[in-house]
Amino acid sequence: MNDLLSLMLTLRPQESGPGSPYWGPAAHRALLDLVRRADPGLATAVHDGPGLKPFTVSTLIGYSPRSGLSREQRYGLRFTALTGPVAGALQTAARVGETVELDRQLFVIEAATTEEGGHSWAAATTYEALSAPWLLGRVPPEHRFKFQFASPTTFKSQKKHVPVPLPALAFGSLLEKWNAFAPVALPPETRRFAEECLALTRYSLRTHMAHAKEEGLRAGAVGVAWYTALNRDRYWLSLMNLLADFALYAGVGAGTTMGLGRCRRVKEGVVGEQ
Length: 274
Fold this sequence. Notes:
Elements: E1 4-13, H1 24-38, H2 40-48, E2 55-57, E3 75-81, H3 84-93, E4 99-102, E5 105-113, E6 123-125, H4 127-135, E7 144-153, E8 155-157, E9 160-162, H5 167-181, H6 189-197, E10 198-212, E11 216-229, H7 234-250, E12 263-265
Antiparallel strand pairs: 1-3, 1-5, 1-6, 2-3, 4-5, 7-11, 7-12, 8-9, 10-11
Helix pairs in contact: 1-2, 1-3, 4-7, 5-6, 5-7
């Protein structure tokens, strides 16, 4: 069974009209509702459990506050899971024809995709399969990484919000989530390598404001950033490549369970798709 899931939903609203200015908290509640339909006990454990949450959500993709909701339009919503039970619950409950409630609006699920060929943000795998190419040395590790930040990305550092995806913050966030949920932890020195040996060498980022729970608006970075390893040690580069691949499922930075930090590694020349 897959324990890493990136599920893309295509939604149709049952009614046209005004919608929420920001759908992240509503998507958070919708994911927990879907998990509850499949396994009430799991939903309670995920909601009430301490520490990092084993999922992320997107906001409503394709929605414009100016235009509002239209029954004639289709919208996207992405859920990810970082454990097998949550992944299984989402795939059980988020089926075509079922409804999802977002901010008191009902949406019908018209498609639910977990295959990369169906959508560039969709995928499903296991921790073992994701890590095998890098940890078993099956492919030479790359020393350049291109990340797309598709929703506002910010980091909590020394009690401040930092809206810039610096290498230590981006890869440190990924390391924290990997060690929280993966069956085999990576060494804490991984963060030190990212801080000392990775450089932010190019970026095309803009500041985007997003609604944050009980904090009003929060600034985050949206766009593309390139990182380059200054140290070509194969072992540490392999761990950087693994964490870069993990970004698709884990998201980056703060607020990923409320629609922030939607991120993935992309190949050079690929134009980001929302």
